[in-house]
UniProtKB/TrEMBL annotation:
One of its GO terms (cellular component) is plasma membrane. SUPFAM superfamilies: ATPase domain of HSP90 chaperone/DNA topoisomerase II/histidine kinase (SSF55874), CheY-like (SSF52172), Homodimeric domain of signal transducing histidine kinase (SSF47384), PYP-like sensor domain (PAS domain) (SSF55785). This is histidine kinase. The modification 4-aspartylphosphate is found at residue 57. Residues 148-185 form a coiled coil. Keywords: Coiled coil, Kinase, Phosphoprotein, Transferase. Residues 329-543 form the Histidine kinase domain. The keyword Coiled coil applies. Gene3D superfamilies: 1.10.287.130, 3.40.50.2300, Histidine kinase-like ATPase, C-terminal domain, PAS domain. It is an enzyme of class 2 (transferase). It catalyses: ATP + protein L-histidine = ADP + protein N-phospho-L-histidine. The keyword Cell inner membrane does not apply. GO terms for molecular function: histidine phosphotransfer kinase activity; phosphorelay sensor kinase activity.
Length: 546
């Protein structure tokens, strides 16, 4: 309740004013009043008296409550305005309250005045409380803006990582160009030798056998005249099988129609051409090849025959696919938390006019989680970049392994969803970079939670093996297929399990392997389908082993 409440009374009838004062005294309020009758007095009192509450008669000889209310609303909209009148009528009173008048008291029912004053004052307190909450929201909004600026800084770091990817792509282009130049050089060598040896079939075929690619010659109609030995070694076909089936069995059925269409199209030209297709190797595997066709011309410039080569470009295609997959994964993984953060900020912006909303704390927590995910992804990119450039540094020191393990498991235990048991030699001390080892342990434990969510117990075993310490993280999940174990620590490799969608860039275990390599240790994984997986690494006990 406001002490020494300032009440401005707009009333031209002294008797009615006295009645109001008497009723106010009965209410027990602590107050001071100022009584005015004209517009000028009313405006001056608003400025100098600075009232907390206004009580106004509805109609005065030279002034009225409606005009007074509009003057008050223009400069002091927060001051409660109560009309005290015996002639206003219920309908007019309702319309005025709709326009913003605080309340209406009939002069015949002045005993209700104190109740309505208390209610108006309570509204003031609520309004002040809302104002305080709005100020807190403003401060939190400022904090979010600061967080957004930090996000922009991290986005700039991501751009640097992206630039590094572009640089790697340029290197791939250079390799591709060198390969293309090499192919062109080899083809030119074939053409020159073919022109020189066109009169000698035997010498011409010997030359075709010297190049490392599959090669053949065909007529202008497309009939193949000769295959070099590389063809038979690669396809495993005998000459009789080649004569009967040839390209029909060697080229992947999905590429067959397109390849023949392109082959015929090139034969219609006079300057050759190229296309790509998958060729079946003798072991049944298909590998991508670059097919090139070049014409052999006689002295008059007429095409005598065509020379074709097939260069194995499987590794180049795999490298290109890995780069494309990684860019796609990185874009998706970064877009998801950034989109979530943007949505949270947009909802917060909509809720700024309603700071008491229960959604506000949840949105702030969600925004912080999204920001944390972006930070983890960027850190993985930077660590992978440092490892690739040989700049992943370690700062070794002596520490007890069990202490680091306890620290890294604290967050998981706090959620009370998984049980982590630490077994073995809990006093074993190693010489390593504690921060990097913590990073590895967190990665192993998070992987156990992510890929084996039904295995509620995770065991971490510490043991000494000669002059090394071995740490194993063991889960009872579904296990990993044997053919995938050899790729787990490769860069960009991600395990697909039962169609589940797991987040990440495929860099975590690669970074772990690079850290252990820096410590001269070993890292690996053992798994049995249906029984679980064990991820382990070793560390030196003494500086001399590092």
């Amino acid at each position: 309740m406001i002490p020494n409440l300032k009440i401005l009374i707009l009333e031209d009838n002294k008797t009615d004013a006295d009645l109001l004062l008497r009723e106010l005294k009965k209410s027990g309020l602590s107050f001071i009043t100022e009584i005015v009758q004209t517009r000028v007095e009313f405006e001056n009192a608003l400025h100098h008296f600075n009232p907390d509450l206004i009580l106004s008669d509805y109609s005065l000889p030279s002034f009225d409550a409606v005009t007074a209310f509009r003057i008050k609303q223009n400069k002091h909209p927060h001051i409660p305005f109560i009309i005290v009148s015996g002639i206003i009528g219920e309908e007019n009173a309702v319309e005025l309250i709709k326009d913003g008048v605080t309340d209406y008291v009939p002069k015949q029912k002045l005993f209700t005045l104190s109740t309505k004053i208390n209610r108006a004052l309570k509204d003031i307190e609520v309004r002040l409380e809302k104002s305080s909450i709005a100020e807190k929201l403003r401060l939190q909004t400022v904090e979010l803006i600061i967080a957004n600026k930090e996000l922009k800084v991290q986005q700039e770091e991501l751009q640097k990582a992206h630039d590094l990817l572009i640089e790697q792509e340029e290197k791939v282009k250079v390799i591709n160009l060198e390969l293309s130049e090499l192919n062109q050089e080899l083809e030119m060598r074939v053409l020159k030798r073919t022109k020189a040896l066109v009169e000698s079939e035997s010498r011409f075929r010997n030359m075709m056998e010297t190049i490392p690619q599959i090669a053949w010659t065909n007529t202008v109609e497309g009939e193949v005249l000769f295959y070099n030995q590389r063809w038979y070694d690669y396809t495993g076909l005998a000459k009789e099988q080649t004569n009967l089936q040839g390209f029909n069995v060697a080229i992947h059925r999905d590429d067959l129609k397109t390849s023949f269409d392109q082959f015929k199209s090139i034969l219609q030209t006079s300057d050759g051409g190229e296309f790509q297709a998958r060729g079946k190797r003798t072991d049944g595997l298909y590998r991508w090849h670059l097919i090139r066709l070049m014409p052999i011309l006689d002295e008059q410039g007429h095409i005598q025959l065509w020379v074709g080569t097939a260069t194995d470009i499987q590794e180049l295609r795999v490298l290109q696919q890995q780069k494309d997959d990684f860019i796609s994964i990185a874009s998706h993984e970064l877009k998801t938390p950034i989109t979530s953060l943007k949505a949270s900020l947009q909802l917060l912006d909509r809720l700024k006019e309603n700071p008491s909303s229960a959604m506000l704390p949840k949105l702030i927590v969600q925004a912080n989680k999204s920001l944390g995910k972006v930070n983890v992804l960027i850190e993985d990119l930077l660590n992978a970049s440092r490892a690739n450039a040989g700049q992943l540094h370690i700062n070794p020191q002596n520490f007890i392994l069990a202490d680091i393990i306890e620290d890294c498991c604290h967050a998981v235990r706090a959620e009370d969803l998984f049980t982590i048991k630490i077994e073995g030699d809990k006093e074993l001390e190693v010489y390593a970079d504690a921060t990097r080892i913590d990073q590895i342990l967190i990665n192993f434990v998070n992987n156990a939670i992510k890929y084996a969510p039904k295995s509620k117990e995770i065991r971490i075993c510490i043991e000494r093996i000669n002059d090394m310490a071995k740490v194993s993280v063991i889960d009872k999940g579904p296990g990993i297929q044997p053919e995938k174990l050899g790729y787990l620590f490769d860069r960009y490799y991600r395990v697909d399990s039962s169609g589940s969608q797991y987040t990440g860039l495929g860099l975590g275990l690669y970074i772990c392997a690079e850290i252990i390599k820096k410590h001269n240790g070993q890292i690996g994984a053992d798994s049995e389908l249906g029984k679980g997986s064990t991820f382990w690494f070793t560390l030196p006990l003494k500086p001399s082993n590092l």
